[in-house]
Amino acid sequence: MPNATLILLIILLPLAGFVMLGIYGRKYFQNTSGIIGTTLMLISTVLALYTAYGYFFEYVKVDGVYQPLVPLKYTWLQFSDGVSIDMGIIIDPISVMMLVVVTFISLMVHIYSLGYMKGDERFPTYYAFLGLFTFSMLGLVISSNIFQIYIFWELVGVSSFLLIGYYYDKPSAVAACKKAFIVTRFADVGFLIGILILSFYSRTLDFNTLIERLTSAESTEFKSAVAASFMGISALTWGLVLVFIGGAGKSAMFPLHIWLPDAMEGPTPVSALIHAATMVVAGVFLVARLFPVFAISAPNALSLVGYVGAISALIAAIIACTQTDIKRVLAYSTMSQIGYMMFALGVSKYGGEDGLGYTASMFHLFTHAMFKALLFLGAGAVIHYIHSNEMKDMGGLRKYLPITHITFLIACLAIAGVPPFAGFFSKEEILLAAYQNNTAVYWIALITSGLTAFYMFRLYFGIFWNKEAHAHGEHKNEGGFAMMIPLVLLAVGASAAGFIPFGHFVSSDRTRLETEFHLMFSIAPVALGLAGIFIAMWMYKKQNDRPDKLAASLNGLYKSAYHKFYIDEIYIFITRKIIFNLIGKPAAWFDKNVVDGLMNATGNSTKDISETIKGFQSGKVQSYAIYFLVSIIGLALLFIYIWK
Amino acid sequence: MIEPGLYHMLFLSAALFFIGVYGFFTRRNLVTMLMSIELILNSVNLNFIAFNKYLWYDKLDGLFFTIFIIAIAAAEAAVAIAIIINLYRSHKSIDVENAEELKY
Amino acid sequence: MSGSTIIFYLLAALTLVSGLLAVTTGMIFRAAIYLLFSLIGIAGIYFWLQYEFIAAVQIIVYVGGIVVLIIFSIFLTQQAGEELPKQKMGRQIFSALAAFCGLALVLVQLVQHEFVITNGKRIEPTVANIGNQMLGVSDGGYALPFEVVSILLLAALIGCIVIALKSKPETE
User: Which has the higher per-residue pLDDT, A578 or C44?
Assistant: First the structure.
């Protein structure tokens, strides 16, 4: 049985760091705050690894099934019998896996930031925010209650808002953090309504009970949830779709992805943390958490998840091919990879061999966290060296940044799905799952995988080869040990993580799932990936005019992809033209004329009355005396003759 | 003409009281207003004495009230005149219209 | 019609007439003198009621004190022989009307009211009785109000001084 105290410590240590550094950081820990935050994170990581070891290896499975455990549960708000908001810890394979991923990536980012953020004036604040973010994310993954997950969900939103807007004196950062917050909040409304619908029909907020009730066809809750329908779709499906909208907002799924590229305004390590391992996979995690309900009771909602994921993956990959800001390329690649995870869940079924997609999705989440964090941190090292995000300012850096170069290459190979790196294994599983269940999604995934290889190596060649480098005087090294250690560790992870027999630990019904390796099946994607790499090499290894020619020949597509398919513009059109005019203006009119009018009328009449009354207070003492006497006589008459 | 009694006293004091009230309303000079107030106070005194004499002759309370009212009236007159003189100093006038700004 | 009755009516007439003149005359000094007569008339009524002590106090304090004070303040603030400013006619009529209505109301009420007379033993308002009760601390003693009033007088005294104190010009 895992120790509740230890798990609580994993979560509370980052919080302690946040509180301590947030309150006293600027005063006492200006220089040491990084060390403090990193140390706390290190302890947390070690505890998480220990817990994972204990859960997966020492804990005795019942009939070969990992049991979900609730080592701690505290009833916080009791609404009625059975419906309560609890603060609890749930320990099952995915939450343990997420604990490890989040703490490990967060630790890497903490260490990396020691070098990257050195000398920043708000250094302690930065570490405080990191602690808060890690705390929220850890709280989210171990939530045992759907409302608890919502609370931490919002906390994650707040802390990502704080981190994206860290450079608050930069207008673009401020705009980006507002955008991220508003878009995800908008999606969270869907999540909240979904929670309300699900809990209304299941009459519980507890995950285990909720899943149990909504998956067994005999239970009265299930029947009522299926019987009630709106626009021909059952309430259960509606609830799950709404919950998925919340998840799509956090995970930057099309069409709610618009905040993610802008979120690159935050410090680069933050991008690594938010866009690699944690915040953006929250949506995937949420769907995985409710996966039995999706898979058994609402297959329609699950196919929606699949299609949204596939479309997002493809669109993001196309856009990524045209962007020139390296962090934006990485952001779109993140979106694309999250799309992979989503459609892997979408094509999966519950239990046994059919649950391959679920395992694959979680596996990809795991490996993606490694190589995407590595890519971002590598990009951070490049940006640190060059002081620019634009690809045109880079080129030929392999001589100056040897370690970054090697690790970045490993990450690129991993994401492109080249064996034997981590991405290969997880991607193969996803493709296999898609192939078995939905051919359309499989083809989209295959094309996307080719595109992924292309744009990643476009990035790689663009940064490290292409034109000859011109020396940058300020930095002679790559940013010191603090920045190199995480790169190396993550590179090891990105190379080796694929060999973990993931299906043994994480599967849809928590049993042991044997994943097989199909050589024949793997040929197509690997070949496509290699083709993408070679095309990228042909176009970008040396400086030439081939990219421009290609862009010119694909003029329309290139332009629209370069402008991100005008989705931002559509949003602006909708908000400015439609919402502002149709809802905002009448509301403003109502506010101005009715609400303000009422207030003004009150104010004016009060003023008029007081203008009249003011005359009575003339300062003439004799007038006062007359009023007094007349009133006394009046009162006397009243009491004596009328009101006996 | 009948023998004077309680009612005569009360009529007298009521008349004096309203003479004082009339004076208080119509006078514009602060000193004359003060005189009106003295008249009002005297009518009250007369009332107390009359009640003491004709209704409650087994006590002396009315008489004491009169004495205290006289004492307080003296104090009041002294303070009022001090204020009037101060006002005169600052405004060179003791017209009640000039005391209007006391309302601020 | 006894002599005493005639004396009462004379005193009452003196009081009311001189009181009325005091509030209506246009010359301020005359107003003060009429006030003096009115107060003397009231003192006479006190004598007539055989409240000699109160009558004495009335003469000493009012006639000897307050009226003199008023006359002094007139000297300080007024040019002698000047006509007083007249109040507006409307105000005068309205005030007269209000006062008359009040008087009528009070008189009507007085006439309608039945007073109840105590049947206790009469206490003569002699100086001895007054003194004993005024400074007595037993039941019905007025020692405490006496002290309170003396403190009030002291306060008024100090207040007068403070208010009337000529403030020195600050600079120059």
Answer: C44
